[in-house]
Amino acid sequence: MDVHPTPTPCPHWQTAPLQLAPGNAAQAGPPALAWLQALCVQWAVPHKLILTIRLCTEEILTNIATHAHRGDGVAAEVTLRCGQLTNGVGVVICDDGIAFDPTAQTSPLLASTLDDAMPGGHGLRLVRHYTHSWHYRRKAGLNELLLVFAYPWPIPVPPHPK
Question: Which of 59, 64, 97, 149 could be disulfide-bonded to 89 (CB atoms 3.0-4.6 Å)?
Answer without folding.
Answer: 149
